[in-house]
Prior knowledge:
The chain is mainly beta. It has one domain (8-105). It is built from 1 helix and 7 strands, in the order E-E-E-E-H-E-E-E. The chain has one helix at residues 61-69, and strands at residues 8-12, 23-28, 31-37, 40-45, 74-80, 90-95, 102-105. Strands 6-5-2-3-4-1-7 form a 7-stranded antiparallel beta sheet. The longest helix has 9 residues, at 61-69. It starts with 7 loop residues before the first strand and ends with a strand. The mean pLDDT is 79.
Amino acid sequence: MNQWSPPELSLIWDTLCDPLIKIRSCWLDGISAGSGFGAVDLYIGATQIPEEAEESRERGGSYVLEDLIVAKPIHLRAIGQVTDCYPRATLEIIITRDTLNQFYFI
């Protein structure tokens, strides 16, 4: 029997910033997103909560997923690992589903 698990979202984008960034830490509207998974740039779960305890009662990963689906703007903040191929150290931009190359629910 398969166990139910909450939806998760995988984001792929490579045209939003120049120069490129190798993301090591990332937040979408203040919610921590996973990164560093090869072809998948960011990964966020519906049950992910903000790092700030006070905010956790009001908003979590499911709200970010909902905003992405309805094309609301999402604030993305990332810290990168600088390499020869990925020279950018930080990134702060606003994204929507229209600015992403692809996004998948897993």
